[in-house]
Amino acid sequence: MMSLKCAIQLGISHIIHSHGRAMILSDLVNSLPINNINGKSCDYIYHPMHILIYGGFFYPN
């Protein structure tokens, strides 16, 4: 699953764990080690996170 591989490579679980509670998507994107390309990073992260949440890897609030 490519979404899981991306999440691992970006360290998403570590970022959320370090935050100590649930994060909104924009906060997560701002914490990621990627460049925010014209404000589009949220769009690029939304779909893999959607797949991971509904796949049971992360839990929505």
UniProtKB/TrEMBL annotation:
Stored Gene3D superfamilies: Winged helix-like DNA-binding domain superfamily/Winged helix DNA-binding domain (1.10.10.10)
SUPFAM superfamilies: Winged helix' DNA-binding domain
Protein name per its UniProtKB record: Uncharacterized protein
Organism: Capsicum annuum
